[in-house]
Amino acid sequence: KNEVEQSPQNLTAQEGEFITINCSYSVGISALHWLQQHPGGGIVSLFMLSSGKKKHGRLIATINIQEKHSSLHITASHPRDSAVYICAVRGTNFGNEKLTFGTGTRLTIIP
Amino acid sequence: EAGVTQFPSHSVIEKGQTVTLRCDPISGHDNLYWYRRVMGKEIKFLLHFVKESKQDESGMPNNRFLAERTGGTYSTLKVQPAELEDSGVYFCASSLAGQELFFGSGTQLSVL
Question: In the sheet that A52-56 helps form, which strands lie side by side, from edge to edge?
Fold first, then answer.
């Protein structure tokens, strides 16, 4: 079992729908990252959070440390949101900030 | 300001050959990481530099992989000799301590 599990693995939705991607982890963390990768493109960091909630435009990320769970929400989804969304966690050892990644969620938004 | 730069973007080599990947981090970022995604799998950690020192190389698959970061600036990852299972996308990322991570666009390595 992976230390970081994402669901769903694939998600197809109509333009305008509200999207939720979930991430659960089984290890202690100092921070959780949500990353985005467009087809053929590099990885972009969307959020880094260690508690509560962050919002950037139509994207919202939440984390519940007690439940070891995070969600990424997209409001008013658009075809340009189509990408792979990856959850990654940073360990708690000071000075060792390597990330452990989930397998990613492939999101397709249909016009 | 330039982001994290990796080159080449693609490399196709034959089994047994040598390939060297390069990563230029964001200027001033002491932390540099190498990650790899092989087909169908999640991205996996390879190693972590702080300046020129290897902080953690627990993810390096075997001694065919050699990473260097001379002078604490750019880093190279050499695979010698390359094997078929080394195919994948190699990502580099850099950060200030405890801060947001910035990724390069990756090098797609194909070993035939």
Answer: A4-7, A19-25, A69-74, A59-64, A52-56
Q: 């580099």: which residue's tokens?
A: B92
Helices (H) and strands (E) in chain B, counts: 0, 11
**pLDDT tens for each residue of B15-43:** 999 999 999 999 999 999 999 999 888 99
| Facing A99 at nearest CB: one of B45, B50, B105 | B45
pLDDT in tens, A42-91: 899 999 999 999 999 999 999 999 999 999 999 999 999 999 999 999 88
Contacts of the segment A91-96: beta carbons below 8 A, 24+ positions apart? A91/A27, A91/A28, A91/A29, A91/A30, A92/A28, A92/A29, A92/A30, A95/B50, A95/B55, A95/B97, A96/B48, A96/B55, A96/B56
- Per-residue pLDDT of A13-30, as tens digits, reads 999 999 999 999 998 898
Q: Does B26 touch chain A (CB under 8 A)?
A: no
> Shortest Cα distance from A35 to chain B (angstroms)?
10
Backbone angles phi, psi at B70, to 5 degrees: -65, 130
